[in-house]
């Protein structure tokens, strides 16, 4: 059973539903986490650079006219739920030292349910996903539910 915890109603993330799939925009992510949008774009670009196929599935590039500069287009991304989870797992977006999420997960692993909160990948899965450095022996993916357990107050 999921634990309920209070949420500041003024800080609700903005989500939209398109064709039955939930999305949020990188601008809304930046506003929600009180980050600069160019930093969020940098983190998305980094994720896509490590796994180019993510750009088509998890991060949909959007070009919109700049509100005050005629002829200029602004870039953003619509993120699927999985795309948001991948981005949100990046410690830097939370201004935490690298490894904070890993340490928190390790310290509280007994509270997490395998297949619901995290997934241990096999070496074959690691090789075929193309998002891990070469020769990565073990990897654990945190699901959205697991991520929320990591960051809750």
TrEMBL record:
Note one Pfam family from the annotation. Answer: Phage_pRha
Q: What is the lineage of its organism?
A: Bacteria, Pseudomonadati, Pseudomonadota, Alphaproteobacteria, Hyphomicrobiales
Q: What is this protein called?
A: Uncharacterized protein
Q: Which domain of life is it from?
A: Bacteria
**What InterPro entries does the database record attribute to this sequence?**
Phage_regulatory_Rha
Q: Which organism is it from?
A: Starkeya nomas
